[in-house]
Amino acid sequence: MELAEIYAAYRRIRPYVHRTPLLTSQLLDALLGKRLLLKAEHLQKTGSFKARGALSKALALESPKGLLAVSSGNHAQGVAYAARILGVKALIVMPEEASPYKKAAARAYGAEVVDQGVRVENREEVAKALLAETGYAFVHPFDDPLVMAGQGTAGLELMAQAGKLGVFPEAVLVPVGGGGLIAGVATAVKALSPSTLVLGVEPKGADDARRSLEQGEIVRLKEAPKTRADGVRTLALGRHTFPVLREKVDGILTVSEEAILEAESLLFTRTKQVVEPTGALPLAAVLEHGERLPGTLALLLSGGNRPFDPWP
Amino acid sequence: MELAEIYAAYRRIRPYVHRTPLLTSQLLDALLGKRLLLKAEHLQKTGSFKARGALSKALALESPKGLLAVSSGNHAQGVAYAARILGVKALIVMPEEASPYKKAAARAYGAEVVDQGVRVENREEVAKALLAETGYAFVHPFDDPLVMAGQGTAGLELMAQAGKLGVFPEAVLVPVGGGGLIAGVATAVKALSPSTLVLGVEPKGADDARRSLEQGEIVRLKEAPKTRADGVRTLALGRHTFPVLREKVDGILTVSEEAILEAESLLFTRTKQVVEPTGALPLAAVLEHGERLPGTLALLLSGGNRPFDPWP
What we know:
CATH class of the largest domain in chain A: Alpha Beta
Oligomer: homodimer
CATH architecture of the largest domain in chain A: 3-Layer(aba) Sandwich
Helix content of chain A: 40-55%
């Protein structure tokens, strides 16, 4: 994957996405003894970086009749948003047992949710049948160079914004599920600043990317891992993302569920930002592995979609 | 109260406070049919505007031995922070039954919490005895021109930031408890843009400011009102704030508890910002009285101190 692909994606999607801010927090810096740059993708359109990749793909298609995706997470909203920009329909295949919150979120962005009779086991089949029937274009959540390039635009912005601040991250920490985000971000970061480390972050119970890089081949989890970080419950890296990670990612850090929760809480109470568990993975890595990490770190806060809890 | 007092306060406190951003949200604008400018005091030092007033007072004192305040809310943290800047001690008198969360928050900012044997009924006496004993300076949460001028600096910034965006608010909506914030903000806004309306917002069950302005004298609530918005449970306006409100505030809107909750939820899910119930009052007023309000509105999000709720 080349930097040029990411620039091309950026030219396509720029009118439709937020250039999300790069936040800083003196409180967090003092608490953790680091200089942190927080790339705020929880403030992105649809509440996560997924809008970038879905738009990058959708805008590269030649007049698609509609978009179809299999997702019970942020990708659903990204595809729904992309379809709205194109003025076409979005069909999202989701298991019946997916949370009503997630179904409602996809519908709120204008998608049609297909869930009747859909289970985790048969959702790919349902999607294939629907694709044949409708002629819609399939948008993969990560394993597609156009999607990966779209996610990489967050890395482009991050480096430009850090440069403007006059602060150069020694490492960029990125959540890893299927690897689409880190593949794109690593491509951008390594092209612009080869000495900056790009580190993935996974929950301890979902460390397929770490094992895949260690073993030099894609390791597939036997079942969906139990973790708060529902955005990275993917079973395996993809055939397009894996080689990019092998080439460009310097390492994978794993974090405990306790560290994820603590990171979410710090972001909530100290920076007043609503970040979902997956988006808190990079800060969890700083909490758990801070002593092994350099002093100036960029953290990719990937999303902020979580339900509101009234209090008290 | 004059604009010059607010500029003087700003010169004192500027090195120690954040120039908080003026946020916008296309989603909220589309949903509510308004152009909203959100003055983000939940991102202020200590998590609320109270740092401005406490610092404005503390930095005007001649070498105080320490600071003392009576508060179980954000003012406690503001005074603790001001004391830290001055390098002196802060004593905060708080009823024993105040929430452990609030005591911990004040202590986290370095204050000493005095709560043994303290009840709501005797806390003023306890404070007086401590003042006599320690020689510390008392910092009132609102009824002090130096405190009011400090809070007004949020209004100065808001107008400058709106001007830079090229958007001029037709009305500024501000939560009202003791009236310190709105007195300062109204002074700044009316001096800089006399045609901009300044509107207070109170919960329906805590409408003493509305009644005070209507009756032309300070109306005192019989007991602390029950409302989610714990920052405005004050019983009455002060003798310094009331005349400023009479002169400069154009009206008071009251809102239901349901509207406050809905406003908090919108800020959480749509803007990904953690805003406490009191800080959500202005948005609640837009939800409940939108049709009576002009199209371009600045909302003062006064604070963001609420505990983190893990989810799921």
